[in-house]
Specification:
Helix content is 44%, strand content 21%. By secondary structure, it is α+β, with helices and mostly antiparallel strands. It has a 3-stranded antiparallel β-sheet with strand order 1-3-2. Strand 2 and strand 3 form a beta hairpin.
Length: 89
């Protein structure tokens, strides 16, 4: 899973699960030469909707398992369209 800098600091201080392990940290270099810090974590759990909701609080990118990544993508897509179609009315 990819975690942005803010989420990384939170995840290090308050792990989501006892199986959480930090795998790698670094920076992604973009085409315009800007960089974005990242940290990969792993969890040895069966991903549930409750876990997905916890991850959404941090605005992270799920890398694996692919079916859970697709579930996250679908949830974000639904939220985007909800706000796109309902402009506060």
């Amino acid at each position: 899973m990819y975690f942005a800098r803010f989420a990384y600091l939170c995840m290090r201080t308050l792990p989501l699960h006892h199986s959480q392990q930090e795998l790698e940290s670094g920076e992604i270099t973009h085409a315009d030469s800007s960089t974005t810090p990242y940290t990969d974590f792993s969890f040895d759990i069966r991903p549930t909707d409750d876990f997905l909701n916890e991850l959404m609080k941090f605005g992270i990118e799920v890398l694996q398992p692919l079916d859970f990544r697709e579930k996250m993508r679908h949830r974000v897509f639904e939220m985007y369209h909800y706000y796109e179609q309902n402009d506060g009315e």
